[in-house]
Design brief:
This protein is of the alpha/beta class. The protein has a single domain, classed as Cytidine Deaminase, domain 2. 25% of the residues lie in helices and 41% in strands. It has three helices and seven strands; from the N terminus they run βαββαβαβββ. A seven-stranded mixed beta barrel has the order 1-3-2-4-5-6-7. Strand 4, helix 3 and strand 5 form a beta-alpha-beta unit. The longest helix is centred in the first third of the chain and has 13 residues. It is globular, with a radius of gyration of 14 Å.
Length: 140
């Protein structure tokens, strides 16, 4: 995996993720970002919401079969899973659990921190060479 400095995502797709996060305040939402990586930029072509099989306010788990099927679908289109998104019931900083899973998935992690329906923050991160790196979010 290479370092990713930016993630480009449509305003419409980012808005959908934020709205779903607000709508499901009691459970972390999660999903996958599909697209391509070019010149240290992750370009999101599609978002895919996935059920949080943990149904937890502080943890998310993507069903392994859904993950596999999404990898296969993306590959058929010449794309790949370039990121994971999920919500937090507070800040958009990666949790200790996130950091552990980032070791297995060193792609972009887009996190929506929802304090309440009016206050939220969005950030993106990548674990690269053992360090958590911020990733600039570019809305298009």
């Amino acid at each position: 995996m290479q370092i990713i400095e930016k993630i480009k995502i449509s305003k419409k797709d980012l808005r959908k993720i934020i709205e779903e996060s607000i709508k499901n305040l009691g459970i972390e939402i999660c999903g996958l970002l599909i697209g391509k990586i070019e010149n240290k930029t992750a370009i999101v072509k599609k978002i895919k919401f996935t059920p949080n099989v943990s149904e937890s306010p502080i943890l998310f788990t993507i069903d392994p079969l859904t993950l596999y099927e999404t990898y296969m679908e993306a590959e058929k289109r010449g794309e790949e899973i370039i990121g994971i998104f999920h919500s937090h019931p507070s800040s958009s900083q990666p949790s200790a659990i996130d950091i552990e899973y980032m070791k297995l998935n060193p792609i972009v992690w887009l996190i929506i921190g929802i304090r309440n329906k009016e206050h939220y923050e969005v950030s993106a991160w990548q674990l690269f060479e053992g360090k958590i790196q911020p990733v600039e979010i570019v809305e298009e």
